[in-house]
Design brief:
It is a single chain. The protein has helices at residues 3-12, 17-28, 43-52, 126-140, 159-170, 190-197, 214-220, 230-244, 262-272, 297-309, 330-341; strands at residues 60-67, 73-79, 84-91, 96-99, 103-105, 120-123, 146-149, 182-186, 204-208, 248-254, 277-283, 313-316. It is α/β, with parallel strands linked by helices. Strands 1-2-3-4-7-8-9-10-11-12 form a ten-stranded mixed β-sheet, covered by helices on one side. Strands 5-6 form a two-stranded antiparallel sheet. The longest helix is centred in the middle third of the chain and has 15 residues, at 126-140. Mean pLDDT is 91; it is low at 320-327 and 337-342. The structure holds iron/sulfur cluster (SF4). Residues 106, 108-110, 113, 115-116, 152-154, 187, 208, 328 line the site of iron/sulfur cluster.
Amino acid sequence: MTRGELTDVVSRLGGQAFRAGQIWRWQYKDFATGWDAMSNLPAELRRKLAETLADWEHTATVVEKSGERGGTVKLLLKLADGGMIETVIIPSKERHTVCVSSQVGCAFRCAFCASGTDGLTRSLEAGEIVAQVILAAREIGGRPENVVFMGIGEPFANYDAALKAARLMNDPEGLGIGARKITFSTCGIAPGIKKFAAEPEQFELSVSLHAPEQGLREKLMPVAAGKWEIDELMGTCREYTAETNRIITFEYTLVDGVNSAPSHCDALVRILRGLKCRVNLIPLNPTAHFNGRAPSREICEAFADRLTRAGINTTLRRSKGGGVNASCGQLRATKNKLKIES
Ligand code: SF4
């Protein structure tokens, strides 16, 4: 709920408007996930809230945690209707990044992503997205600095809820996560990028590209077949940067023998030339769902050097989390598979 929506509910239940502010603080400053924790609310109001918003305490519950202390941690969450999603906490020296899911499953079936394997079940509500950040904050022991919509699902296929969630996270009286610290990642939904360009907040945009030309891209990302082909996508990205004056991060997963040759790099330079952008190169995380592997470190570094020498701002990411099933959708997919087999 927005603060206005919450204030309306509290008023309907006979509470004074300032009670909404108290609930807001319990939720976003103390990361409370139950009404009983809100000790400064009158017991009667808590009882009415628990009755009226019966599902709130069950919005998302951690059912499994994997990872190591100080490293990437993946949470498997159960939703009120039994749906499963994942949230990943990625620590670095000075900050924590939380990777949130925006849907239960995904319709887009990108080749090296476990999330698309079983298709889309449903989109998440804004509260189910924000709840992931609150649960992650409880794990971390404080508010995370960055949020990325790179978990299960395509945020632009759940545009309104994802945007509402980002605005709630951005609220200075709530989590207060800076707009520039919240990144929407899309597999290339061109109409979503167009709409996003018109939003007043400075949220960041990341586009999963993974291939520099149409034929290869539609093999790796079926979303590119038929609609939102690479020319249209890149045209939309150029319009986005012109309209917003913001840069786009292009994600490019390096797969051995598939998209990591010097010729792919040169083709990538051609489509990115003159575009305000940076490229994130990610050596493929091993997944049972895709028959491929990461190129050698030398090939990855040569690809990164070639891009950099061509004037493209490039980062070569160290692959994090392969050991904890931390690639998008892997933990959920493993869990679903176990359920089917047991
Ligand atoms: S990469 Fe994103 S859009 Fe593609 S299947 Fe996975 S969750 Fe869906």
